[in-house]
Specification:
This is S-adenosyl methyltransferase. It holds the Pfam family Methyltransf_19. InterPro entries: SAM-dependent_MTases_sf, SAM_dep_MeTrfase_SAV2177_type. With 250 residues, the chain is of the alpha/beta class. It has a single domain (44-181, 199-248), classed as Vaccinia Virus protein VP39 (Rossmann fold, 3-Layer(aba) Sandwich). The chain has helices spanning 11-18, 26-38, 42-62, 81-84, 97-106, 123-133, 155-164, 185-195, 204-210; strands at residues 67-71, 89-94, 113-117, 141-145, 170-176, 215-216, 222-223, 242-248. Strands 1, 2, 3, 4, 5, 6, 7 and 8 form an 8-stranded mixed beta sheet that branches. Bound molecules: S-adenosylmethionine (SAM). S-adenosylmethionine binds at residues 11-12, 15, 49-50, 53, 72-74, 93-96, 99, 119-121, 145-147, 150-151.
């Protein structure tokens, strides 16, 4: 299982720093600052991603979903799943022990939400943990936000999860892409590779392919701020650096 290595930057804590959080170490902050030099909009992109999380959870609540499996959940700070869906059962899974330790603190007052350490590629273990707290015979909101670009071969895990969830469940994804800044692609790849967490940005068609076999909800695969925004999206949506999609299992 993953070990705590505060000397190496980690995606959970880099993202926390970009969100303005305090659960990060010097190497995470140094990496984030380097990333911001390549991609000055990265902090806005992190906030836009978290805002999508709330819209995606609300989408599920409106559809009657009362349980959520959040894979690659990071540190569930303000406005996270259990706050958007009070009373829902939530399992957070992340492969960073520090993110999980902080999750346990954040979730101390949320009796229906728990967090476990796990790698989403280890589908048997994750599904076993999920079956302990969720009823997988009933619809689940499966959240995989800003995580699949850290997974080299996501199709097989995705197949396992979508096979395991009941009809009426839905999958929400945000995914890093270089479509909006192709000239920065190599710099970003090099930077992440140097951190020990290589990233695989995918284009729009590749993101659409991740939900193949499910029914894609309108408006389809779009820049994250354009997925059913609460208010008209400001600025250039490509600066979100991610695509969003929600798809339903029928
Ligand atoms: C950019 S953060 C996104 C956090 C959260 N999903 C959100 O959108 O606010 C990516 C998270 O994915 C986690 N992660 C990366 N690879 C993972 C894997 N193979 N299994 C589980 N978690 C993973 C990282 O530790 C990190 O917390």
């Amino acid at each position: 299982m993953a070990e705590i290595d505060p000397d190496r930057p980690h995606p959970a804590r880099i993202y926390d720093y970009l969100l303005g959080g305090a659960c990060n170490f010097a190497p995470d902050r140094a990496f984030a600052e380097q990333f911001l030099r390549v991609m000055p909009g990265a902090a806005d992109a992190a906030r836009l991603n978290r805002a999508f999380l709330r819209r995606a959870v609300r989408f599920g609540v409106d559809a009657g979903v009362t349980q959520f499996l959040d894979l690659g959940s990071g540190i569930p700070t303000v406005g996270n799943v259990h706050e958007t869906a009070p009373g829902a059962r939530v399992l957070h899974v992340d492969n960073d022990p520090i993110a999980i330790a902080h999750s346990e603190i954040e979730l101390a007052d949320a009796p229906n939400a728990t967090a476990v350490l796990g790698d989403l590629r280890d589908t048997d273990a994750v599904l076993a943990a999920a079956a302990e707290v969720l009823d997988l015979t009933r619809p689940v909101g499966l959240l995989m936000l800003a995580v699949l670009h850290f997974v080299d071969e996501p199709h097989e895990p995705l197949r396992r999860y979508t096979d395991a969830i009941a009809p009426g469940s839905y999958l929400a994804i945000t995914h890093g892409t270089a479509d909006g800044a192709p000239d920065k692609r190599e710099d970003v790849l090099r930077l992440y590779a140097s951190s020990g967490s290589p990233a695989t940005p995918r284009d729009r068609a590749q993101v659409a392919d991740l939900v193949d076999g499910l029914v894609v909800e309108p408006p389809g695969v779009v820049w994250t701020p354009l997925w059913r925004p609460d208010e008209p999206a400001a600025g250039n949506p490509a600066q979100s650096l991610t695509y969003a999609v929600v798809a339903r299992k029928v």
